[in-house]
Design brief:
The protein is mostly helical and 195 residues long. It contains eleven helices and no strands.
C-alpha cells in the first residue's frame, strides 16, 4: 500500500465538493448542491432506510453510498440528458476501478463489491442503497420545488416510480406533504427581554 497514492486519492475526493449536480441546472437552479453534499445525505438516508427495513448492516449501506459517486471527481456529474449519449455505466465502472486500484487489495476488493452491489441492485443492501440515492434526489427536488423551481417536481415523480423498498415509499409519501422548512418549526425562540 503506497501512502502517496492514498494521499492523492484523498485530495482527489475534494473535487466532489466542487462538482455540481448538473441536472438541477435543467430545472433553473443556478447554484445546485455538490456531488459531495448529495453523497453525505444519501449515506445517512441509507443508514436510516436500512434500519427501517430491518437490515442488519446499515453501516455497509452507508458505506456504499459514501463511495457510489466517487468516479464523478473525474467524469463530472452527467445528468440524464447528457448520459443518453454514451455508456455512463461502463465509464463510471472503469473510472471507479482505476481510482481504487492503489488503495490496497483489502479496500479495493470491498469497495468494488459495494460499487457492483449498488449498480446491479442484486442484493437487498444494493436495493436499499439505490433507494436511498434516489430518495435523496427527491428530497433535494422538494427543497427546490418549495423555493419556486416547479419543474423539479419531475425528479420527485420519477423517484416515486423507481423506489422499491416499503420504507422508502413511506418516507417519500410523508416528504411530499412536508415543507422543507418544517423541521425548524417551533425551534426558534426569541431571546430578547423587553425593558
Amino acid at each position: 500500500m503506497n501512502t502517496k497514492n492514498i494521499v492523492n486519492f484523498i485530495f482527489e475526493l475534494s473535487q466532489l465538493k466542487r462538482q455540481k449536480h448538473t441536472g438541477w441546472w435543467l430545472a433553473g437552479v443556478n447554484n445546485p448542491v455538490s456531488v459531495a453534499e448529495h453523497m453525505l445525505r444519501a449515506a445517512q438516508i441509507g443508514y436510516i432506510l436500512a434500519v427501517m427495513e430491518g437490515n442488519n448492516n446499515p453501516e455497509k449501506i452507508a458505506s456504499m453510498l459514501i463511495i457510489h459517486d466517487n468516479c464523478e471527481s473525474r467524469t463530472g456529474d452527467q445528468n440524464k440528458i447528457s448520459a443518453k449519449y454514451y455508456d455512463k455505466k461502463d465509464c463510471e465502472a472503469k473510472v471507479f476501478s482505476n481510482q481504487i486500484k492503489n488503495l490496497g487489495a483489502r479496500i479495493e476488493k470491498k469497495w468494488k463489491n459495494y460499487f457492483d452491489e449498488f449498480e446491479e441492485r442484486n442484493t437487498k443492501e444494493g436495493v436499499i442503497a439505490k433507494d436511498a440515492d434516489w430518495l435523496e434526489v427527491a428530497f433535494q427536488a422538494k427543497e427546490y420545488v418549495d423555493i419556486g423551481h416547479a419543474s423539479a417536481q419531475d425528479w420527485i415523480d420519477n423517484v416515486e416510480k423507481a423506489l422499491e423498498t416499503k420504507s422508502a415509499k413511506i418516507l417519500l409519501k410523508e416528504m411530499k406533504k412536508t415543507k422543507f422548512t418544517d423541521w425548524w418549526d417551533g425551534l426558534k425562540e426569541m431571546t430578547y427581554k423587553k425593558l
